[in-house]
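hey can u check if this looks right to u? its 239 residues, i copy pasted from the old doc so theres a chance i mangled smth
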Amino acid sequence: MRAIVTRHYKTLINAAEEILGWGDSPPQRGWKADVVFVGSRLRKLGLNFDAIYSSDLERARQTAVFHARRLGIDLVQDTPALNEVNYGTFYKKKKKWVAAHCPQYKTDPDFIYPEGESFRQMQARSVHYLSQLAEEKPQQTILVVAHAGVIRGLISHFLGLNYAQHLKHKVSHRYIGDFQFEGKNCVRYDELGKPSGFVTDAAIEIPFSCPVVSVPAISAELKPASGLSIQPVIGTLGG
């Protein structure tokens, strides 16, 4: 399977440098330029997609709907397994405030946010989901619309990187990651849009040949992501 992974449109809360997590926010003015950039790159690359998947948070679902219409795909399939990390009570707090009051913020992947989850739990559910798709649909090319935290978790896992050391890399709204699988294992990674911090911070060079890594099970603590079902959604995006 080949999974092309991109990020949702930029929201007002993103622009305000506030924590978003499982909350949601309207798109920022000018959001369409980033999404059109990604869509144009995908068309220029001549990729033919078999399906589109997204998290079930509105900003990702609506971005996926935008791409689906331009690509001529009738259905977007969403799942909480691809949701951003649940920051719990830190929703809408300034990122600088959280960093000052919570030293584990983006330093300790095992820290569970109050009334939320840890980065490690988020990574486990998203890696498990994508790996299962890869095993079930080995011949397909899919588009995945997710979140910066999810993307960092996927890259760190499949490239065999120390997760704690890679929680702060920038992931643009023009990011396009290219994950190529053999069975459940990602064997090659590349970036086709605006480079992520993994590349600009010299953490990796692309294209990257991935090591074989084990796929973690979904944590028993992840109640929202257990017994996952894929719910079809199609809607409209204003702006």
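The domain at 2-183+190-202+219-233 is CATH 3.40.50.1240 (Rossmann fold).
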